[in-house]
Fold this protein.
Amino acid sequence: SYFYTQRIMKAGSPVSYLSPAGFTEGAGVLPDGPLNAAVGETVMFTTTLTPTEKPFQVVGWSFNKSKTIIISTNVNITGPEYEGRITFFPSTASLQLRSLTLNDSGEYIISILQADATNHQGRTTVVIYGEQMLKSNNLVEFSGSVSLSCSASGSSLSFLWFNGSSEVTASDRVQLTDGGSSLTIITVTHGPENINLILSPPQGYFAVGSDISLTCSVGSRPPAQFKWFLNGDQLPDTGSELRLMNVQMSQSGNYSCQAFNSKTLRSQTSQPSAITVLGKSASVKPSTNLPVEGTSVSLTCEASGSVFTRNWMKDGSDLTPTDNMILSDNNRVLTFDTVNRKDNGEYFCQISNPVSSDGAKYIMTVNYGPENVQIKGPNKINIKGTLKLTCSAESTPSARFSWFLNGTEILTNSAEYIKEEVELSDSGNNTCQAWNNITERTSSSAVHGLTVTDLSSGCAAGCIAGIVIACCVIIAAAVGGGYYIYEKK
């Protein structure tokens, strides 16, 4: 019996597909077979004989017991079908056969007569791989379906299809027919449907000079074509994204997008999205993007054009300055002498004049810590048990942690220290140290004592250490007492 496998390559490329499962023995002269090779390749028959300087008396190679390949005595006689296709190696009686065809599949026999009248004979089988061709119809994207067919020489074939390195199997869109040699992929067109217009940034009011992006998403196969409209008038832009750069007041209005499917001939239009461009451009600029607790931070409310009033709010309420806050330059600058974590929140600057108003916000996150480092986990554990210690610290952003056992670093950049099977040597002090990469501060370390016990011996690592110390004390006392008696005498 034979097992078959197939790999799909580009159209017209021959590939191997045959791999027999049986074998024949070479009777000690030739290695066990079969020998596998593809059409056009070369096969080497290497004997197990030791190379000799003296040629064998007679060597004969034959195919399927009927065709002579070569007879070597003091001269070489080559069969007509093998002229120019073989190379004979007299020292080992090995043979190389080139330019293989399907007809070269079969049994090869070698007969050797040595000068001492010793005879050797061996046989093995060669299987020549066939040739496969992959054909397809003309491929047109979203044309409805595509068919691929694979033809191969040989019998009792089975076929495997691959998309890249992944095997293709039958599904609602993939059909395998004709014993697996034909593959049909069905393309289903649909849409457009579920159209959605996304505004970024997601706000309705924008300052002059802002950059705005509108994205139209829709379900469609093939991909939809897009049109854009402002107040019902078509814009020259196409594509799924409309970018408005350096917007002006004249660009205020209702924007909408329309998607069209060239196959289904259907279209769908989104709900309008209102964009209002204000005449005043407000912004809040911090003196630093990463405020650190204990340092000075300033928020400056900037605006283009004339500004008559500036008002500050925090978290939606009018700002009441605390002891560490100072408002200056007609409320243009809000300064924190020493910012702290209680100053976290949303700061909003409202600017106005008699004809328009605008505002800008800034969300302050004060970075601090790490502090109050703590370790949670067991203080006593049996040998071979799983140890899990968790380190925590108050910190913004979240702290990074390093672990030490008895002063030696064992883990970095992890809030958890886990060891699957603890040993007695794991007893001691586990230390966790926290570090904040923004504040560049390192916390004081937290220390967690751990004792590893061995229930089988009935004594923990600390117990053993205590016994050793006690023995040392007793010995020292005995030596000291003996010396004292000696001195007294």
In short: Helices lie at 461-488.
